[in-house]
Batch of 4 targets.
Target 1
Amino acid sequence: MLMQQLVNGVMIGSVYALTAMGATLIYGILRILDIANAAAYAIGAYLGWYIYSISHNLLLAFLLSMILTGLIGVVIQKYIYYPIISKPNVIPIVPLITSVGLFTITGDLIRLILGPNVKEFGVVFKSGAIKIGKLIINPEWIFIIVLTAVLFAILWFILNKTRLGLAWRATAEDSEIAKAMGVNTNISMALSYILGYGFAASAGIMVGMLYNSISPTMGDIPSYKMLAIIVLGGLGNPVGTVVAGLIIGLAETLVSAYMGSILPRDAIAFIVLIFVLLLKPSGLVSKKSA
Amino acid sequence: MSMLSLVDVEISYGQMEVIKKVSIEVNKGELVSVIGPNGAGKSTLIKAIMGLKDIKSGKIMYDGIDITVMPAWERAGLGIGYVPEGRRVFGNLTVEENLKMGCYKVKDNNKNKNNINKVYELFPRLFERKNQLAKTMSGGEQQMLAIGRALVLEPKLLLIDEVSMGLMPIMVNTCFKIIKDLNDSGITVLVVEQNANKVLKIANRGYVIETGHIVIEDTAENLRSNDVVKKAYLGS
């Protein structure tokens, strides 16, 4: 049923957009493709799972996990990425490889500390599924869609309505001139990481909730799918990332529903990416038109 | 009274020395120009004063304060305004947002609103387009915005880098007239410029820089009649 698939697609797509938003914000300011966003996704999921298991308060789990993961991001930015990119003549591949290393290390650390086995997330919603005709909507889906919308609204507000957001946008466009205008670009960088890693953490918890499982390797697929989404969204463009996330989510859901398993679900993101880039090389929402 | 002084400043890009022991003095209320050919190090010098390029040795004093190692954003807070080479307005920000960025360091909202309105009076064109994205404007309008963005800070010292570059001749004249007016209103100005002919007509004093060295320093009037300058920069 089409309606059902659309609801599924929008939900998966918004989780994708959340995952990729971190990488987008970070690319916007630091021009680093930070694969370690997928590590933030896994760390966030584990933190959320732990906080939920002791507090049984889902909102608290989200909030605390997002803040903690965001702070981890700031530390990584300040003590790992910043020293690397401030060296003269660093080619962009160096921070990229660093981020792959960070991502790998994080997965292994989680496995060493908490073991390789899958953990159940175990979130129970009191109300049952809502049925509208043949359409079935689970309460956790509503929770995820609403929370994602709230998070994006907060992001939009910060970027477009606050002084900090104005400075962020100016820095993303021309960090040298932003500095000359009085912007402490270290703060813009920290903001990117707090929001970016925080968003990735929330996406990790959502996926953990949805599939009722978290594992040390849960960041593997998002690590590369997120790349497809941010490139599709025009690299460094927050609005483009939301659009691209939704398109990939819908494409995956619809293709697997109506065309069966002619190809692996996770390959669809890249087929969409290649197709769009052939038609519009600057991505869906290019920096110039946003 | 000295507003800005550079003492034996040396700057290098990797192994290459681009500025070699340069000393420059700008007094309060003066309009000083640094002229020289492309690649002589003029923009590098301006960037070093703004804090966008580290210097290897030497000292930069501004209004009695040693700013040699101060980050750029703090220099903006001390009242150094910057009009960069090639305008470099924030294209995806609106005209008004660009001006807000210009006074980012000033926390007093009423004062900022006032100063933004003053810029709109000076450049009515910017007022008409205040909600438009900066990239949609012509080169001349963007140059006005770049100047306006530096003015909303109420700068004590204005650094201007190649204002004439890529502009129509009529716009170039307008820009130089504006710079002269700003200086008359009391702002100290340091201009680096390839268009020696135009800038020496409005400046009080000038320095000629070649391959990283200051080769001549004199009043603008004397520079205009200096044979070397005439031959190399004034095309006569």
Target 2
Amino acid sequence: MADLSVNLPGLNLRNPVLTASGTFGYGREYTDFIDLSQLGGIIVKGTTLHAREGNPYPRMAETPAGMLNAVGLQNKGVDYFIAHIYPEVSRYDTRVLVNVSGSTIEDYVACAEKIQALDKIPAIELNVSCPNVKHGGMAFGVTVEGISSVVSAVRRVYHKHLMVKLSPNVTDIAEIAKAAEAAGADSVSLINTLLGMSIDAEKRRPRLSTVTGGLSGACVKPVALRMVWQVAKAVGIPVIGLGGIQSATDAIEFLLAGASAVQIGTANFIDPAVSVKVVQGIEDYCERHHIEAVSSLTAALEI
Amino acid sequence: MRLVGKREWPNAVLLKLRSDVLPLPAAAPGQFVQVRVDQSPATYLRRPISIHFIDEKQQELWLLVRKAGAGTRAMASWPVQTMVNLVMPLGHPFTLSGLSSSDKVLLTGGGIGLAPLLYLGKVLSQKGLRPVFLLGGRTSDDLIQIPEFEQYGEVCLSSEDGSAGARGLLTRHPVLKERTFDRIYCCGPKPMMVAVAAYARERGIWCEVSLENTMACGLGACLCCVEETTEGHRCVCQDGPVFNINQLKWQI
């Protein structure tokens, strides 16, 4: 049987499959369908220093082979997470990462510090790429200066694995990734959602309360794959690939393009057990291709 | 589950499903299922469909589906024997606790909102109640499964064009003036539910409504289908779809 483990700096994963923030709740929503211990890890819902109600309804519009969302980081804040959710997720036999977001650098720093104190959270994913909040979020992730300032500020206080989630809504994602690396990121994950829009022609109204929202699902996969390939060539730190992955074949394409691990997002909505099926499918692929370690697939694309 | 029977009307289809291997999971009135629609390229997400009826003897789950868009039209085109991928049961059901057999209960549904009331009516009748069903639609084409409803209570009909029952909006039906009710369970388009909620509130009647906000995951994970409540944004898929009107921030 192939060795599926993935060793990221300060973060060892049983296998390369994580579930993406915002699509998997706190894991407990999926325990009727899968055994969480079969995953490399889960990344829980975007967490901010203070509670956020998120955007008004409607927040979702289906698109061909995808969906737009404008949830806007609804969550009860990091203190609530620590008091009420951490005790439960800390018992899971898988890696639990927290996605951290904020409106100001001070918020990111304060939130990261609080999560650092939690023994069973080995890493955070810094969300500098949420397209659905007015302040902060994606604003940090679309310029070299923005990403440098927030990543270096968090790096000063956060000493575990720091994953930085990148926005695809930029001209040159490789430049942004390099800036994250230079500011101290241990890995980068990409892509967050693509800024999009949907209109109801009959009503002459936007379908989302925020007019624009983040596009995800199968339709974004070619864009995500291209960006992972570009970023993996540009940086020395590990790349975590996500965007439209629905099958083991999709996941392997991301590994070949340069990813060390992958995240499954929107596909969880269509098949709540898909993440475990992807793990199984990667194992089958390795067996079929006589691959001893899944890590050997990373950037193994032949051009 | 396997599609074992269907019946079609101009605006809706009834799908009867049965598992070849497993007993039907226990489900309560007001809960829903998430249906995967594989044969429709324009349909990416599952379709949340309320449980219309459960026939324990036949081990059948009935879904009554309005032909609203590409996904539900694809469902309507499924031939009998089609294997259907469902996630069920989901959501918070209608509240049945605290009912006494002498309670006068109104079950009111507008359009396809009548769907979840049949199974609710059956469960209420098993508790010795005989509810009043007030069912409304645009035309008689929307008023379907009426003989089924008649098994479990008294049925009052209304249609906007007068083609069946009282003419006009459901909320103008004389039964609402002539009778008094202790409880109301309601499902339908939002303006109709707001009007029913206003009727209930004026008279101090306990009232639950079932919402149908657009959903993605159906599991409480994505936070897309939220409704504003007295406790902030709540997921219709998990905290609902059934809410007491006192929980909602509707202008009623």
Target 3
Amino acid sequence: MSRVPIERRLPLPLLAVWRIFYWNYERTTIPYDLMVMAILAFVWLTPPDWLGDPTARGLGLIGWLTSRLP
Amino acid sequence: MTLTGAVGAIFMFPLRGIIRACVALGIHPNVLTLIGVCINLAAAWALARGRFVLAGVIMVAANLFDFIDGKVAHASGTASEFGGFWDSVMDRFSDLALFLGLIYLYASLQRADYVMVAAVAMIFTVLTSYTRARAESLIDTCKVGFMERPERIVLFMIGAFTNRMAAVLWVILVLSVLTVAGRIYHTWRELSGDRSVPA
């Protein structure tokens, strides 16, 4: 008796998490681009203060944007 | 064309000329690999001194050599099994040197927390390549996981040029752990005969 693959048993949100864990997409594909964008968003938008960055200070881009809000 | 495909095509354009020049000058690809490693040591030194922008510039130069060595080998017909082995070993050396530079920096800033983050990321960086190499001695291929060397190097450059090295280290750490875990799982799955998803 063959087992049903785990990919077919997971609901969509968990499938997305599974795909990140069991990543087998090639470079220059749409999922790869989405992953790159998510990483760049994390790197550039997360305030250095939140991470206790030893070499950078402040709230970064988010801090700059929120300071422009009325 | 995807976004990363377009970026790759733009960067590949000037590299073609450099590759042609190396082939015309008869430079052996193994020498290019060695030059790349030596330049990477300078980048590690710059990271250790906290001079991130300088480190980024040096990393671009170093990885230029690292990128073109394989292409020059194929274009000049000098590709060999030893060349592949030499390239892989030197890549590990370059990776570890960069992490060592950051560990030295954070230690000199007395930030034991980031010394640990960089050290654990370094461990999983080594395991990323080791799991694949060991797995491929048992199964056909183990190309699972996002965080491979090109991604890691580009992230290092982004972290250096934009002074976001802490965030970059966290990304490398988390995705390297996932990559290693994914490769272990994939190898177990292949060896146990459950081949429901090709990788």
Target 4
Amino acid sequence: MDWLDEQRANFEALGNFSDRILDGLITTVQLTVISGLLGFVIAVVLGLMAGSRSLWLRGPARVLIEFFRGISLLVLLFWLLYVLPLFWIKYDITLPAPQDNTFATATIALAINYGAYGAEAVRSALTSVPRGQWEATTALSMSWPHKMRRIIFPQAWALMIPSLTNLWVHLLKGSAIVSIVPEVNEFTFELDNLRRPTDIWFSHAFIGLATYFVLALILTLGMQALEARAKHKLGRGPSLWEILSPDPRPTPPDAASAAPPRTKAATTRPRAGKETE
Amino acid sequence: MTSPTLAQHVLAQAEDPGIVDETGPILDWGFAAEIFPEMLMAFLKVTLVVTVVGTIIAAALGLIIAIMIMVLPRPLAWIVRWAANFIRMTPIVVQLLFLFWSFLWLDPMVIGVIVFGVHYATYMSEVYRAGIESVPQGQWEATTALSMSAVRTWRRVIIPQALRSTVPALGNYAISMFKDTPFLFVISVPEMVTVAQTIGAQTFRYNEAITIAGLIFLAASYPTALLISRLEKRLAYAN
């Protein structure tokens, strides 16, 4: 009975803290989504630059990618929070300073760090698009934006999604370190507050780790759906609607040979990790 | 877990910029040279030790997990796989905090080594799984034809062949673990970035300490990454 009473007390404490825990969860989701999208933009820009033939584009991109991949996330975070403000003070910069909005600073740090990893995924996906496709766009004398938007990127997109999914889960997990940044009360920070009235098993394992796991699963499933859609658009698999429909319609013979998206993603995972880490 | 000096300093700086010495140069090389030995010691004594011991644990445990998932009966294998997925998909920071508060009597560095080792073992098990799956079916059939025992089959035939192709991927995870070691900050292990932060808090000069930390990370991880990518190309060529 002791144990039950203890759990009742734990849940009571959780009830008292529910507002803050929920706020923290929302902050973590915001961090993950905003810096994920920002990081994706960085990844595409740097990836396209790194994949280009011009040295003037490739050189700077390589330096930036290796630099931000090489220094650790926490170092980048500290550098933005402690060192960058000095430039503001010294040179009287009137733009908003990094320490005024720590949430934005943390978002940018996450986006830059994981964007640099993503750039490598984007670049390797671009090089995996068959040579003939590139040559065909040249033969049809397509403009660069046209061929990227219509021919190359849609094919590379389907290839890069598994790596980007892994990176996004990494970003979600990495966002827990933002708990040390002042004034950003994200989920891990609030868990530490919950630890005091409850016990560590309840706060960190039962609530904390489980919630992060569910978030990561949702992220993975969402990205797998996106991958299925990207493949269907290229004519290489059933549509999302067909996968989700309760009564499976007979799939056309050429689509039947394609593996379902779940196993596809699972088989590409080890390779994807190799490319992005 | 939140270092009070950190929060206070950033807030104090926001309210009163005069707290920072703005007359001196942004990077004081003399001061940098002064603190460099202390930071290098923290790097060698903590960061490198955690990375090396963590990698050894991860490489061994990862292989055990991969084999367990393949040889255990289905329900047990399913449990091991989802336990590994659970560890892989949850943040290292929360895992560190969880074990730190659960085992207060343990040295935080031991906790760090265990968490990094187990966390990265779940990643490495995936690498091993791919390696084991790439061993041709004929090898398995040959061991059956020679009526080798299961242990002998794994030890003498499958694992030696599976390991070859996994080395670069394991190396990449070791680098990734190295870059995650600053997360030990949350359980106050005096690794390099924690030392840099402490120096900054004591002297109000963060620039040199944090910049040096970043440069040491770059100097250690970039050449290793280059080495591994060369190894990768070599192995791909050999196959």
